[in-house]
Amino acid sequence: MSVFAAERTVAINAVLRASEVCQKVFKQLVSTETITKKDKTPVTIADFSAQAVVNTILYKSFPNDPIVGEEDSGDLRGDTGKEIRERILSLTNSVLDEPLDEEKLLDAIDRGSYPGGSQGRMWTLDPIDGTKGFLRGEQFAVCLALIVGGNVQLGVMGCPNLPVDFNAPEGERGCLFIAEKGQGAFQRNFSSTEETKIHVSDVSSVSEASFCESVEAAHSSHDDSAQIASLLGMTKPSLRMDSQCKYCSVSRGDADIYLRLPTRADYEENIWDHASGSILIQETGGEISDINGKPLDWSLGRTLKANKGIVATNSKIHSKVIEACNKHFNK
Ligand SMILES: Nc1ncnc2c1ncn2[C@@H]1O[C@H](COP(=O)(O)OS(=O)(=O)O)[C@@H](OP(=O)(O)O)[C@H]1O
Ligand SMILES: [Mg+2]
Ligand SMILES: [Mg+2]
Ligand SMILES: [Mg+2]
Fold first, then answer.
1. Given strand 287-289, what is the order of strands in its sheet?
2. Which of 44, 124, 131, 313 is catalytic?
3. Is residue 117 within 8 Å of 299, Cβ to Cβ?
4. Helix or strand holding residue 186 (H, E)
5. How far is the CA of 226 from the centre of ligand 1 (A)?
6. Which backbone phi and psi does 11 adopt, to 5 degrees?
7. Which burial class, exposed, middle or buried, applies to 26 when counting CB atoms under 10 A from its CB (0-12, 13-18, 19+)?
8. What are the entry keywords (predicted)?
9. CA 187 / ligand 2 centre spacing (Å)
10. Which residues are CB-neighbours of 330 under 8 A, at least 6 positions away?
11. Which of 69, 55, 65 is nearest to 4 (CA)?
12. Which of 156, 177, 179, 277 could form a disulfide with 244 if both were Cys (CB 3.0 to 4.6 A apart)?
């Protein structure tokens, strides 16, 4: 029986509303509505608005739950932030039942500042994962997960541009993925409430397998993955896409392995970039670890500081992929 039925319903609603914001923005986005953050990555009015929407909806049902969210309101305050703030406010209010004022909007965004840790309940939110994919009109995802005592219990992901059927790439787009610990995982189309149970592929020979990996070589080394593919005797082309949609693709069997290989020794993966994807992989029968085969540790704060890179597979071929990573990186 579902332990988090209420959380599941609220999270689905929040992710769908935030996805709606992103879809609205994409049609009208102008260049002044994208900011480059200190780490040189982009953030748009849609990222801020989606975070405000999700945090507001979560607060209404679970006022005591802290949130580890990617964005903060620093760039939206004061005179310099006035124009962008007003756009975000009207966007946010276009999907909320009760309108916010400017102060409440900024507060809602900043409710995502929780430092994380091993104690109690917390949500983690990536309002748009794959912002670069979003800007290109390609794959992005609204990603929300519930973590309790350092364990991911629930994950909901909205993928507005992902084809509902991998074999019909020109067909309907827009899917929602829902996974709860011990309850399996489901895909739902944006146009319906019917849920279909999904599972990973049953490929058991690694030479038959295919990778799903980042578009940006700066986020996961393509050279290293090509060499690992060669060690494994893999010949199929990689499926390349932005965002946690990669986890969705592996979880429904479109590809067999999600590899995220470190490009910089000092990079720590953010928990919001992987929490919902990790439970989706586990609940569809897959396996997830870092490149050394170590379980992901969600209890150390806003990042996965004890882990290096990510390997998610259909489970049958996991140990082979870890072995190849080991061989490649420790050569
Ligand atoms: N150096 C480096 N290494 C690994 N990961 C990084 C790095 N820099 C940024 N990021 C994070 O990558 C998130 C987007 O991941 P993607 O898999 O979508 O990358 S890609 O767009 O396909 O290249 C992106 O998430 P969003 O900001 O939510 O898009 C970042 O959190
Ligand atoms: Mg970002
Ligand atoms: Mg992200
Ligand atoms: Mg993001």
1. 239-240, 211-213, 257-260, 310-313, 287-289
2. 131
3. yes
4. strand 185-189
5. 19
6. -65, -40
7. middle
8. Hydrolase, Magnesium, Metal-binding
9. 25
10. none
11. 65
12. 277
Q: Is 267 in the pocket of ligand 1 (CB under 6 A)?
A: yes
The confidence band for 76, taking pLDDT boundaries of 50, 70 and 90, is very high
Please report, as a single letter, which amino acid is at residue 108.
Answer: A
Strand-strand pairing, 211-213 and 257-260: parallel
Helices (H), 262-317: 275-283
Tell me which DSSP letter residue 76 carries: G
Q: Please name each of the domains of the chain with its CATH number.
A: 5-197 (3.30.540.10), 206-329 (3.40.190.80)
- Grouping H, G, I as helix, E, B as strand and the rest as coil, residue 316 is coil
Give dist(CA 11, CA 144) in Å, integer.
7
Tokens representing 188 are 């739902």
DSSP assignments along 119-155, one per residue:
SSEEEEEEEEE-HHHHHTTS--EEEEEEEETTEEEEE
